[in-house]
Amino acid sequence: MDKKPSTRISLAPETFIILMVVCCGIIATLSFVIFDTPDPSSAPQAITKSISQGTTMNPPAQKVVLSQTVPLSTGDEPIDQLFIQSGCAVCHTIPGIDPAKGREGPILVLGINGPKRLADPNYQGTATTVREYITESILNPGAYVVPGYPDRVMPRWYGKKLNAKALDRIALYLEALP
Ligand code: HEC
Q: Does 173 sit in the ligand 1 pocket, CB within 6 Å?
């Protein structure tokens, strides 16, 4: 029996090792690309981050303050706690209230902005004083939507959470902010 001429390519051992290394490299790279899912333990952080900062890839996630998480106020809370527990601080920057650095809504400087809102020809609410304007903005945010900001982002249920005393103290504080 004749031996068929061998078609095997004979490899020098060095070449074989180099090929093995290259193949391993390719497999490793592919598996990174295919299985590159984020570590599940870091996922919640990623979500919170995109909510709190907005991301450049997606439209900024709107902040949501849920009625269930906001306690009924007694009106006797320290003023900063009142703004924080009510969630105002999540969406508004409020001078003098340290953690209130939110940017969903306008900076609350109603000493300056209150008279401007009332003087706006588009103002259709019923307030005649800045104090009333502030109370109206909290109880009925749709009465006047500050230009440049979205309607229906500020919650509409504050009338169920803030009693008269709390509203009064909030308005008193905000109308004094220059
Ligand atoms: C989920 C976000 C969000 C929360 C929480 C929130 N606001 Fe607002 N607020 C807004 C946005 C957005 C606007 C602007 C649009 C509008 O006028 O409704 C606004 C407008 C206002 C205005 C009118 C400001 C101006 O310059 O005319 C006042 C006053 C105000 N908010 C007070 C409060 C107070 C007090 C709280 C807490 C009891 C609060 N907001 C909670 C988003 C929020």
A: no
